[in-house]
C-alpha cells in the first residue's frame, strides 16, 4: 500500500524524505506517478490537487491537507464520499503564525508605516507614544492559531479579545461568539486580526459592515484566507481612513496579479501567503500517526468536521 503526495515538485521531495524519516517502510508515490490506483491508501495533498482525481483510488482510507486550512479540499466536488480528511495541527505552523501576527501588530502599534514615511521625507518628528495596555486587539477565530497568537500578544501587555463559533473560554482573553458577539468585539477592536477558517459562514466576513463597526482608524491583519475579505470594501475603508492600514498575507486570487492595487497601496503591507509555511519534517509524524491509525481502525487525529466546514 502507498501514500500519494501532491504539491510542487520540490516540496513533494521534502515531504517524501520527511515521511520516510519517520517510517522507512512507507511506499511513497509522487503525483502524477501514482502507479496502480489500487495501491493508494492515503493522499497527502495541497491546494492545487483536484478532488475529483482522488475518486480514482478504490482503497483510499485517508486524505491529509498539507496545511492547517482545508477549504481547498472541501469545495465542490469535495473529497470522495466517506473518506475522512485530516488537517495539520503543528507547533511550527502555529508559532510562525504567532510571529507574523505579532510582527504586524507591533508594526501598526509602533506607527512603523508613519515612521518609514517620515524617514523617506527626512523629517525628524516624534509621534505620540503608543500605550500597549490601551491598544485593544480583537481576534476572529480562537482555534490553534488564534489562541496561540492571543497568548503572545497578552504576554507583552495587549488587551486581547477573541471571537468563536461556539462559546469558548481562554485564560486572559475576553471572548465573544455569534453575530452579536462579533459586533460587540468589533466596536472595541483597535486592531482586528482574522485567523478564521474559510467556510460558507465566514466567506466575505470582513466586509463594509464589519469594517464600519471598528473604531475609526483601526487596523486590519488578515492571515487566514483571501476569501474572508471583500477587497472593494477594504479599499473603501482605507480610502476613507476608517481603516488606517492593513497587513495581508492571503488574497483573491493567489498569486495576486501584478495590476492589483494592493501591491502598491501605501497603507497595505503584503506577504505572499507566507505567514506560516508547513515544514514537512515537523508535520510528518502526525501524518504517519494518522496513517497507522487508519490502517488499524483507531480514531484519527486532527479530523475535519465536514458539517462545520473546518
Ligand atoms: P482551527 O483550530 O480550526 O480554529 C478555527 C477557529 O475559528 C475556531 O476558534 C472556530 O470557532 C472559529 N470559527 C470557525 N467558524 C466560525 C464562525 N462561523 N464564526 C465564528 N468563529 C468561527 O483553525 P486554525 O488551525 O487556527 O487555522 C485557522 C485558519 O488559518 C486556517 O483554516 C487557514 O485558513 C488559516 N491559515 C493560514 C496560514 C497562512 O500562512 N496564511 C497558515 C495556516 C493556516 P470554535 O472555537 O467555536 O470552533
**Alpha-beta content class:** alpha/beta
Order of helices and strands: EHEEEHEHHEHEEHEHEHEEH
Largest sheet: 7 strands, parallel
Q: What is the molecular shape?
A: elongated
How many strand elements?
12
Number of helices: 9
Strand content: 15-25%
Give the rounded overall mean pLDDT.
Answer: 97
- With strands numbered from the N-terminus, the spatial order across the biggest sheet is 8-7-6-9-10-11-12
Q: Oligomeric state of the chains?
A: single chain
Query: What is the CA-atom radius of gyration, in angstroms?
Result: 21 Å
Distinct compounds present: NADP nicotinamide-adenine-dinucleotide phosphate
Contiguous uncertain segments of 5+ residues? none
Q: End-to-end span in angstroms?
A: 28 Å
Helix content: 25-40%
What does this structure look like?
By secondary structure, the protein is of the alpha/beta class. The protein contains nine helices and twelve strands. The chain has helices spanning 9-22, 71-74, 91-109, 112-120, 144-155, 178-186, 208-213, 231-240, 280-296; strands at 2-6, 27-30, 40-45, 62-65, 85-86, 137-140, 160-164, 174-177, 191-194, 218-222, 243-248, 268-270. The strands form two sheets. Strands 8-7-6-9-10-11-12 form a seven-stranded parallel sheet, sandwiched between helices. It is elongated, with a radius of gyration of 21 Å. The model has no long low-confidence stretch (mean pLDDT 97). NADP nicotinamide-adenine-dinucleotide phosphate (NAP) is lined by residues 67-69, 93, 97, 141-146, 163-166, 168, 195-199, 201-202, 223-225, 249-250, 273, 275-276, 310. NADP nicotinamide-adenine-dinucleotide phosphate binds next to helix 3, helix 5 and strand 7.
Amino acid at each position: 500500500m502507498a501514500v500519494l503526495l501532491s504539491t510542487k515538485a520540490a516540496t513533494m521531495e521534502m515531504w517524501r524524505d520527511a515521511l520516510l524519516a519517520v517510517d522507512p517502510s512507507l511506499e511513497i508515490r509522487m503525483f502524477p506517478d501514482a502507479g496502480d490506483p489500487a495501491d493508494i491508501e492515503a493522499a497527502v495533498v495541497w491546494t492545487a490537487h483536484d478532488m475529483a482525481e482522488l475518486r480514482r483510488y478504490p482503497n483510499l482510507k485517508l486524505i491529509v491537507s498539507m496545511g492547517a486550512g482545508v477549504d481547498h479540499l472541501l469545495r465542490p466536488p469535495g473529497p470522495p464520499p466517506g473518506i475522512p480528511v485530516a488537517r495539520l495541527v503543528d507547533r511550527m505552523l502555529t508559532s510562525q503564525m504567532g510571529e507574523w501576527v505579532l510582527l504586524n501588530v507591533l508594526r501598526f502599534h509602533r506607527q512603523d508605516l508613519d515612521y518609514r514615511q517620515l524617514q523617506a521625507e527626512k523629517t525628524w518628528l516624534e509621534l505620540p507614544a503608543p500605550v500597549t495596555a490601551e491598544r485593544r486587539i480583537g481576534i476572529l477565530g480562537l482555534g490553534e492559531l488564534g489562541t496561540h497568537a492571543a497568548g503572545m500578544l497578552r504576554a507583552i501587555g495587549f488587551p486581547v479579545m477573541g471571537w468563536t463559533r461556539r462559546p469558548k473560554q481562554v485564560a486572559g482573553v475576553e471572548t465573544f461568539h455569534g453575530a452579536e458577539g462579533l459586533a460587540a468585539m468589533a466596536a472595541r477592536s483597535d486592531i482586528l486580526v482574522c485567523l478564521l477558517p474559510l467556510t460558507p459562514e465566514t466567506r466575505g466576513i470582513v466586509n463594509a459592515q464589519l469594517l464600519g463597526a471598528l473604531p475609526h482608524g483601526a487596523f486590519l491583519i488578515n492571515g487566514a484566507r483571501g476569501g474572508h475579505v471583500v477587497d472593494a470594501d477594504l479599499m473603501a475603508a482605507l480610502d476613507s481612513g476608517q481603516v488606517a492600514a492593513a497587513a495581508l498575507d492571503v488574497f483573491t486570487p493567489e498569486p495576486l496579479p501584478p495590476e492589483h492595487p494592493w501591491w502598491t497601496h501605501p497603507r497595505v503591507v503584503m506577504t505572499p501567503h507566507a505567514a506560516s509555511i508547513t515544514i514537512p519534517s515537523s508535520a510528518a509524524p502526525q501524518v504517519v500517526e494518522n496513517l497507522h491509525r487508519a490502517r488499524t481502525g483507531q480514531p484519527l487525529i486532527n479530523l475535519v468536521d465536514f458539517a462545520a466546514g473546518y
